Every structure is written in C-alpha cells, then in structure tokens.
Amino acid sequence: MKNEKQLRKEIFEKVKKIYRFKKETEKFILGKTRIDYAGRIYDEKEMINLIDASLDFCLTAGRYARKFEEEFAKFLGVEYCLLTNSGSSANLLAISSLTSPKLGERRLKPGDEVITTACGFPTTLNPILQNNLIPVFVDIDLGVYNIQVNKIERAISKKTKAIFIAHTLGNPANLEKILKIVKKYNLWFIEDNCDALGSKYKGKYTGTFGHLATFSFYPAHQITMGEGGAVVTDDPLLKKIVASFRDWGRDCWCEPGHDNTCGKRFSQQFGELPFGYDHKYVYSHIGYNLKITDMQAAIGVAQLKKLPSFIKARRKNFDELYKFFKNYQNYFLLPQPEKNSAPCWFGFPLLVRKTAPFTKNDIVQYLEDNKIATRMLFGGNLTKQPAYQNVKYRIFDSLKNTDLVMNNLFWIGVYPGITGGKLTYVIKVINKFFEEK
C-alpha cells in the first residue's frame, strides 16, 4: 500500500501534466487576443505548492506562510515580515499600528496630520481617514510622479506626525531627502511599496527605508498570491503591534494552534480583567482579522524564486519601450527614474503634451481598440473622486501637476508576460497611430 508521500508525488506528476496541457492549448493571436497591462506568470511549481498546501488542509496561515515570511524578509534584508490578505490591508495595518497606546507619546491621535499625495491609489489614502487622521496633500513632480520633496518641510505643521507615500509605478521617491526630514522632525515614515517590489534606491531595496513598509501580491504586481500582502519592519515593537491589529487585536502572540508560548497564559493582570484571565482572549487593540491562508502563501513561496527573473523582464520591457518612445518626445513627456535609483517598473507612464496633435483619450481608445490594455494613474487626483467630497484634508500650495496627470497621463504594461512578439506588436500599433496623425 502506498504511503502519503508516494500518493502526493503521484498527484504532483498529474498536476505537471495538467499544466503542460493548459500551456499547449493556449492560443495567442496578435490583434485578436488582448495584451494585458499586467497579469500572473506561473508554472507547475505554483500549482504543486497550492495542491500541497490544500492536502495539508491547513485553512489558515501555516508552514508555507512561515516560510514565505522568512524568505521574503531575507530577500529584502529586513527583520520581520507579516503576511496579510492584501496590500490594502497592509496599508491599513501600517497606519493603524501607529495609533497604538503602546507607542506612548509618539502614537498617532485623531486630528494628527499625515503628509501624502492625492495622486495615486485610494487605499494609500483611506487608512489615514479611517483612523481619523488628516491627510496633507503635496503635489508631485512630473516625469517621476512622486511627491515634491522640496515642499514637504514647508507643508509640516505642529500637527504633522507622519509621512506616508507610495513609490509611484515602481519609481522610488527621493528617499534621501525624505529621511532627513523624518529625522529632523521626528516623524513616522511609511513606504507604500505595493507597486515597487524589486526597486532599489542607492543599491538598497525600497520598502526597507521606512519604520514600516507595505507590499501587495495581487496578480498585477511583481509577484502574486492571488490576493495577499505584507507589512515589513525592523522594529520588534511595531512587529508585535501589527500582528495584534491583524489578529483580532489580541495581546497574545502565540501562533495559531499553539498555546502558552510565553509560559504565563494564566498568571498575568490586564486592564480590569480578573487576574489570570486567559491571555489568548486578552485584546490590547481594536483590531481586525486580516490574516492570509497557507494556500495563498504556498503560491508566494514559488513566486519568490522567480522574482529576480521577473525584475529583469520588467526592466528589459521598459527599456525597449523607452528606446521606442524617444522618437516621439515631442508628443509625450517620458518617465524619468529618480536619481540614484534602479526602478522595477510597474508600468510605462506617458504624459501627453498639451501641444500634441491628439488627446490622451484619442490614443487610449486607439490602443484599446487594438487589444492593448491601458490604465490611468489610478485615482488621478483623489480629491476629485466622489468618495472624498466630504472628508477633511489640507492641500499645501496646489495640486497643479496632479491635475495634469489626471487629465493627460496613461500607462501601458511592462510585465514579464509581454514577450518579444507582443512588444513588437505594441510598437507597430503605436507607430501606425502616429502615421495616421
């Protein structure tokens, strides 16, 4: 009779065959099959890991989650990685953790200000508002599309306690100047690195500069778990606080399925609870349940091994497009990497110049009609979105460039699934657009 290990091996061999069958039957026809802006890139290894985790029937975080957290932290060069169910949840956890009473006088309180940008994805902004904090919007620099660092210091008030910015489309912000301001004013600094996994600033990975940093593993990003995200930090106290907010707000730090790791489960006093109340049911924060499943983490473990090749492919595709679009600089403002950076680009942004003989909508519609996916720079100017019409915020100076991006910028994909033939087709279609103009 076969043992479990042998049976699993047989299942995995079948999975390999299913993957090969799927690949063999896939058909891509240029001009008819859509070229997406991003997407999942995987092989039988992700499928096998997924099946392996499901056969364990561990329905919450388990061995694969622990393995990913260890390997991801090692890849980045940080102390701690905490998995969560999405990049948006990671942002919520990062900001919420800074409101913890365990931080004493440094905790964020309702009415405190957080400097950020209005040009980006809503779930960078939302946690600020959800924690009753006041966002202070600073405009962006065109070309790099990150916060104007020369305005940050002037935007600071007595209420300012933190800076929370994203590295837009994988292009690192000017971290040297930001960190000087953070140190001078004793501010918290959080990096939204959801679009920038693999990007470097002065030879160091982005997502390792802030007190906290966040990542997303949605299918569009550099690696995927389907849904999934992470918060990283070097601070043991912040690590404990983030875990508490993620895991219902509990004070206990035992792994699921483990009891009394501290040896003091029934011998402590908390708040007004009776002495010795079970530590597993003591709550030190008003938290959430934002955990991940081991099946998602299993996919991530396989994806992480591919990350170096994914980074290389994104940079190659970006460089090819940049070389092409240099011929049309009179129509577009081309993207500019931040000084001292090596971006792992999430996309290729194109700002249509006001003097161009076509509009953004003209070329976007043309590309979409020719099965080439486009995207806006997320929410454009978020202050113009319906969701934020009645919220409290402060704008420093103006959002002139943010408005220009909202009206004139779109981007196309550079992800590893855009192989040579697809990239050639994209260039051919765009050349034809210009010929017709």
Structure overview:
- By secondary structure, this protein is an alpha/beta fold.
- The chain has 2 domains: 402 residues, Aspartate Aminotransferase, domain 2 (3-Layer(aba) Sandwich), CATH 3.40.640.10; 27 residues, no CATH class.
- Helix content is 38%, strand content 13%.
- It has an 8-stranded mixed β-sheet with strand order 1-9-8-5-4-2-3-13, with helices on both faces. It has a 3-stranded antiparallel β-sheet with strand order 7-6-11, with no helix packed on it.
- Helix 5 links the parallel strand 2 and strand 3.
- The model has no long low-confidence stretch (mean pLDDT 95).
Structural class: alpha/beta
The CATH class label of the largest domain is: Alpha Beta
Q: How helix-rich are the residues, as a percent range? A: 25-40%
Mean pLDDT equals 95
Number of domains: 2
Terminal residue distance: 72 Å
Q: Counting H and I runs of at least 4 residues, what is the number of helices?
A: 12
Q: In CATH terms, what is the fold-level topology of the largest domain? A: Aspartate Aminotransferase, domain 2
CATH architectural grouping of the largest domain: 3-Layer(aba) Sandwich
CATH 4th-level superfamily of the largest domain: Type I PLP-dependent aspartate aminotransferase-like (Major domain)
